[in-house]
Every structure is written in C-alpha cells, then in structure tokens.
C-alpha cells in the first residue's frame, strides 16, 4: 500500500463509507461537556455526513472506514478483496485525532466507524474498539459514536464495542439466507443472528441494571440497527418486509435500513447490471414506518404488494395500495371509528389521528375540519365519512387509483 497522508486516506475512506446507509443517530441519551469535563456533545452543530433521525432531527457525523481493505469477497461490495480500488488504512490514533479535530471545528457531533476486515475479524474489531475506547477514556469524548461490529469477532470484543458506543450495528446484508450464501459466501446468517441476539441481551440487561444502580455501565443506549441491500438478489419486497419484521421482533432492533444496491466498478458478473429504482427503497421505508407506527402487520404490507411479483407499487405509497385493495374496510367514520381504523385512512398521519381523537371529544368533525389536519384532502375523501360528507359511489369507483394517485410530474430541464 503506497504511503498516504491523512488527508488522502480521509478522501478514500470517507468515500468508501458512503455505501453504508445505517448511520442515523436517533434515540441516544443526551450527553454534553457543559460541566467543564470532557469534550463533545450529542446535540447541536453542523457537519460532514448528515443523518436524519425519525423525529426529523438532523445530526452530523464523521462517517469513515478504518480501512477499505478486506479479506472477504462479498460480490456487492466495492471494498471486496478482488475489487480494483485504491486502498487506504487509518491507524486507531489517526481516527481518534481526526474525530477530535473535526469536533473542535464544529464540523461533527459524532463518529460513525465501520471497516473492511484486515488480518482477522478479531484484529479488526480490536482496532475499532480501541478507537472508541481512546475517545471515551483518554479524551473523555461525549459525542455520539456508532460502531459497526463484526459478527465473526470474539463476543467479548463485540461486547466492549457496546460499552463505548451509543449505537452498534451488525449488517444482515441480504434479505434471504440463499442471497447471503450466493453473494457473501464467507458470511453466515447464523453467526450474524447470534451476534445480534447477544447484543440484544446485553442491551436489555444493562438497561435493567441502570434502573436499579445509577453506576451501572452504559451499553449501546441508542440500541442496535442493521442494513439490508435491496435489489442485488431476487428477494421481493414481501420477502424484505417479512425479514425486517422478524429482525425487529427477535432482536429488538432500533432500525432496519434499506440500501438500494448500486452497481460498482468492476462488478461481479452475478450482480444485476442496473440498480433498482430509488423509489423502491423509499417504498420499503414507508412500509417499515407503517409497521412501526401505524400498527400494520407484515402480512398487511405483503397484502399490499402485487400478487404476481411480490413488489410494492412504485407509483403509490403502500398505505394507499392497501386501502385500494381492501376497500371493504372503508369508508371509516371520522367521528366514531377507533384509532386503528383511522390510521388506515390514506392521507391521515399519526399526529392528525391524535388531533382527530382529541377534537371529537368536544364536537362532531366535518370534512373541512379533517382538511385542516391533512396535506391532501383529495386522498382522504374516498375513504372517510365526516359529519357533512359521505363518499357514496366514490369509494367503489373502478378508476379510483388514477383519480387519487399522485400525478406524474415532468421534471424541468433547468430546475
Ligand atoms: S466483509 Fe464487509 S467490507 Fe468486506 S467485502 Fe464483505 S461487505 Fe465488504
């Protein structure tokens, strides 16, 4: 490997990290250094990589790899052993110094650190842990730290990562075991899931201990997350949603991230030539949202997919797709129906439903009242009964979909 200075390494290793989608920082505990001790905080500031939390909060992270060299050869990965890319490697002190320097310049609020595997899984994990240890113990860094952990590494090392990090993640990589076997043959679904299970147990045990003893150590207070690549194998949206739901249930994941596969230079011949539409990734995030906040089951989301292809429609969101398929569940009476049915109405969000439930305790609501709580009353009308509104035949129209689907817009050439 040619001798590179830190700036050159940064250019290579920040670029290599851009393929990782799972750097949202939601849910961490608040820490700061206002007491004059330590450095950093988990709130405020501006930075390099912007990650958005589900609550809309935006935080900035230094998002880098420790190295883009790797002894594995996962077909979809630009950093795989056989890839013809320029390689670089930071030492642990270099990452520590960069993080502190970027923090002091107010560029970042935290660090997202991942890595290719160098030497062995244990050696790589030791280096990752050493970065976090040094930041926390030598420099009293109180900013956010998200560490990617390596499932094959010694469980004790993975555990140490959780003691220093706010969030840890272990990538499942692909939605199906067969896809993983084909595209990442050196990885094992069993080892990945075992590591996730151990992480879940440690997170729960520490949270319990923290309730009883203030002095109990922190352990990944922002939980664990994972990432799935979409469109690199034959998995359908139904497969992906079912897998994600299982991961939430079994391992208590904070988030599952979906990353649309993007063709890479010198790509392996077994990969598709084209990337999936970015809208597919967006629809999967919407489905994920429906399961986490709108009480949809995975089976509900699967029911919204096209029966022949198993894919969610790209032109309408999954909630509207479900409502159009199950018209018998509508219209829903805004003045009488329970929360779970109001949440099924396309165009009504969680906040709008809460406002409706609060307002209807005092008076009956008209369509105009509902209109003030939603962005698109046209989308709501076929599915709702209000004090002065009944959709009558509108709900049953055979051509309802084109009537309420968002209009396709011609992009402006010079916008
Ligand atoms: S182990 Fe990670 S870095 Fe290495 S080739 Fe596979 S996905 Fe890429």
UniProtKB/TrEMBL annotation:
Domain annotation Elp3/MiaA/NifB-like radical SAM core: ranges: 60-287
Classification via SUPFAM superfamilies: Radical SAM enzymes, RuvA domain 2-like
Superkingdom as given in the UniProt entry: Bacteria
InterPro entries noted in UniProt: Aldolase_TIM, DNA_rSAM_put, Elp3/MiaA/NifB-like_rSAM, Endo/Exo/Phosphatase_dom_1, rSAM, rSAM_sf, RuvA_2-like
Keywords (A to Z) from UniProt: Iron, Iron-sulfur, Metal-binding, S-adenosyl-L-methionine
Cofactor: [4Fe-4S] cluster
Pfam families assigned to the protein according to its UniProt record, in alphabetical order: Radical_SAM (PF04055)
Protein name: DNA modification/repair radical SAM protein
């Amino acid at each position: 490997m040619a001798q590179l200075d830190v700036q050159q390494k940064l250019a290579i290793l920040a670029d290599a990290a851009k393929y990782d989608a799972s750097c949202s920082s939601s849910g961490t505990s608040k820490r700061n250094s206002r007491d004059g001790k330590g450095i950093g905080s988990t709130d405020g500031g501006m930075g390099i990589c912007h990650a958005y939390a589900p609550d809309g909060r935006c935080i900035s992270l230094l998002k880098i790899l420790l190295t883009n060299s790797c002894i594995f050869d996962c077909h979809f990965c630009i950093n795989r052993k056989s890839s013809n890319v320029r390689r670089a490697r930071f030492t642990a002190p270099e990452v520590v110094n960069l993080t502190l320097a970027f923090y002091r310049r107010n560029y970042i609020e935290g660090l997202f650190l991942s890595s290719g595997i160098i030497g062995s899984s244990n050696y790589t994990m030791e280096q990752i842990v050493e970065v976090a240890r040094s930041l926390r113990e030598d420099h009293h860094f109180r900013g956010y730290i998200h560490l990617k952990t390596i499932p094959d590494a010694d469980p004790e090392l993975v555990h140490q990562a959780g003691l220093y990090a706010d969030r840890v993640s272990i990538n499942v990589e692909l939605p199906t075991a067969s896809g993983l076997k084909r595209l990442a043959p050196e990885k094992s679904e069993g080892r990945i899931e075992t590591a996730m299970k151990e992480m879940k147990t440690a997170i729960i045990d520490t949270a319990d201990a923290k309730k009883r003893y203030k002095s109990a150590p922190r352990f990944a207070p922002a939980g664990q997350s994972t990432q799935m690549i979409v469109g690199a194998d034959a998995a359908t949206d139904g497969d992906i949603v079912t897998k994600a739901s299982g991961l939430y249930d079994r391992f208590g994941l904070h988030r599952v991230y979906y990353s649309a596969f993007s063709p890479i230079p010198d790509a392996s011949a077994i990969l598709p030539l084209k990337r999936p539409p970015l809208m597919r990734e967006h629809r999967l995030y919407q489905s994920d949202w429906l399961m986490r906040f709108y009480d949809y089951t995975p089976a509900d989301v699967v029911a919204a997919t096209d029966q022949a292809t198993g894919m969610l429609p790209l032109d309408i969101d999954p909630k509207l797709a479900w409502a159009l398929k199950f018209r018998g569940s509508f219209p829903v009476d805004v003045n009488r129906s329970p929360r779970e049915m109001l949440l099924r109405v396309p165009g009504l969000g969680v906040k709008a439903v809460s406002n409706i439930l609060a307002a209807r305790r005092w008076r009956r609501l008209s369509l105009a009242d509902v209109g003030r709580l939603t962005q698109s009353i046209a989308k709501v009308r076929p599915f709702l009964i209000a004090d002065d509104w009944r959709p009558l035949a509108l709900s049953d129209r055979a051509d309802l979909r084109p009537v309420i689907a968002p209009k396709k817009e011609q992009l402006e050439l010079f916008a």
